[in-house]
TrEMBL record:
Entry's EC annotation: 1.11.1.24
Domain Thioredoxin per the UniProt entry, residue ranges: 3-153
Role description: Thiol-specific peroxidase that catalyzes the reduction of hydrogen peroxide and organic hydroperoxides to water and alcohols, respectively. Plays a role in cell protection against oxidative stress by detoxifying peroxides and as sensor of hydrogen peroxide-mediated signaling events.
Taxonomic lineage from the root: Bacteria, Thermotogati, Deinococcota, Deinococci, Deinococcales
PROSITE patterns registered for this protein in UniProt: THIOREDOXIN_2 (PS51352)
Enzyme class (EC, first level): oxidoreductase
Alphabetical list of InterPro entries matching this protein: AhpC/TSA (IPR000866), Peroxiredoxin_AhpC-typ (IPR024706), Peroxiredoxin_BCP/PrxQ (IPR050924), Thioredoxin-like_sf (IPR036249), Thioredoxin_domain (IPR013766)
Official protein name in the record: thioredoxin-dependent peroxiredoxin
Alphabetical list of PANTHER family matching this protein: AHPC_TSA FAMILY PROTEIN, THIOREDOXIN-DEPENDENT PEROXIDE REDUCTASE
Keywords carried by this UniProt record: Antioxidant, Disulfide bond, Oxidoreductase, Peroxidase, Redox-active center
CDD domains: PRX_BCP
Assembly and oligomerization: Monomer.
Similarity remark: Belongs to the peroxiredoxin family. BCP/PrxQ subfamily.
Classification via Pfam families: AhpC-TSA
Length: 153
């Protein structure tokens, strides 16, 4: 079951596509967006829209992080293609997708279950303030930014 608004995000550890450990920055809001497959145009569109608005998120004190279960090499290529400045978290073992409750049904011809395209806005105390399930890749970043502005004003 997915985390709902009001739920606290469980403490987690993750590794970024750079190979370095990821630690959320204290006192900051956070957007955590899950995307199913790095080598697709929809996922690239979503990631690029977050990059286009990244400075606006940062100005509000909101960090952005993408999560995917593809191998590290695929995420490194994804980062280069999309020219991303924010962290991408590796979830090959599907621990984060299980903790957030976003694992999808197994796709045809896929050996493992992928994540659903879902986005969470988390406050500095680790509480989910908003959870989007019907995510449109081209609109997600703007919708989340608008909600962050509303909550932080």
């Amino acid at each position: 079951m997915a985390l709902l608004p009001g739920n606290t995000v469980p403490t987690f550890s993750a590794v970024m596509d750079s190979g370095q450990p990821y630690m959320p920055r204290a006192g900051r809001w956070q957007v955590v967006f899950f995307f199913p497959k790095a080598a697709t145009t929809h996922c690239q569109l979503q990631a690029r829209r977050y990059q286009a608005l990244y400075a606006e998120f940062q100005a509000l004190g909101v960090d952005v992080v993408g999560v995917n279960s593809d191998p590290r090499r695929a995420l490194m290529k994804f980062r280069d293609v999309c020219r991303l400045d924010y962290p991408l978290l590796l979830d090959e073992q599907r621990r984060l997708s299980q903790q957030f409750g976003v694992q999808d049904e197994q796709w045809p011809d896929e050996p493992v279950r992928r994540v659903r395209r879902e986005t969470f806005l988390v406050d500095p105390d680790g509480v989910v303030r908003h959870h989007w399930t019907a995510v449109e890749p081209g609109n997600d970043a703007q919708i989340v930014l608008d909600e962050a502005r509303r909550l932080l004003s």
